[in-house]
Amino acid sequence: MSRDPALTRRIIATLACVLLADFLLVGCVAFLLRPWLAPVATALPSGLGWLALVVPATAVVAWAQLRYTRREALSSVDATVVTDEEYPDLLAPVRRLATGADVAVPTVAVAETDVPNAFTVGTPRRATLVVSTGLLAALSADELDAVLAHELAHVKNRDAMVMTLATFLPALADDYSLLEDLGLSRSARRTVWLAAIVLLYVPSAAVIDAPLFGVRYTVTYVLLVAFVLLFGGAALGLLAMPVVSLAGRLSHDREFIADRAGATLSGSPASMAGALRTLGEDAPAASDRDARAVDGVKQLCFLPGGFGDEGGALESLPISVRTHPPIDDRLDALRSLTADSDR
């Protein structure tokens, strides 16, 4: 199974946009926090300054995005990693198809829900393939092979990794504080914010021209903190917008490619079409679904409906483009593939 050149170009463009947005976000944060980060920047080698601080920080942010988004995606659908003893008829075809696709065998997790769907998150070296019990119950063995091959195509093309990265900034912009998603109660989150504000009070004397602990100093400090939070939130929203747009278009295009690659890998375009028809029977029609509501983990899925009532940090900003092509269009593309193979 080879990579599609057109999809590869779009993946590279989306990845570049995500990394640029990360870089600008880290730079913006460094700018806002420069009163407190100045001692660190001045200690760096001459000529590098802030760049030597922002570049490695951007790499750390990208790494953290992958780990955090993977964890949140699994948590949002309550998926549990499974073993051969629990699901031998699932893990065996995953291994067989992964070998055929020449990709590392992903971790497999199952979500206990009647909603039939699947998605993949992570990197080519550490991907996690999630399926629902509803999907396992709804499909025949050949149709399941086709869906699993479809998901492995996302790993092969590396669009699963890019989509994993791309869901983070919009989610962060929608939920400015990630403390809630770390399991902290409302009182605990307030305590964390209060502690941060108190700890930065004295170091702010480096930029506030007023007697420490005085009224003027305190008022200036409060205004400084308010400016950092408000400006930071606005910058985050602006940086998330192009990521949302490009990720939505990538999500749309990658489904056609994965359908075709999955049909080829499984050896049965008819099984892929059968899976789409079977699962599409219960899916809402495009005219009944608001395209702007297809977001978060839903844009990672085989079908756009998600896994039901999943929530959490991956319920991101509304996406202004449809992230999945209509099922009829996907079926038409598979019919074209079948016709070409019959010639």
From TrEMBL:
GO terms for biological process: proteolysis. Residues 90-337 form the Peptidase M48 domain. One of its GO terms (molecular function) is metalloendopeptidase activity. Binds 1 zinc ion per subunit. The chain crosses the membrane at residues 12-36, 48-66, 192-213, 219-244. Its cofactor is Zn(2+). InterPro entries: HtpX_protease, Peptidase_M48. It holds the Pfam family Peptidase_M48. Keywords: Cell membrane, Hydrolase, Membrane, Metal-binding, Metalloprotease, Protease, Stress response, Transmembrane, Transmembrane helix, Zinc. Belongs to the peptidase M48 family. This is Heat shock protein HtpX. It comes from Haladaptatus paucihalophilus DX253.
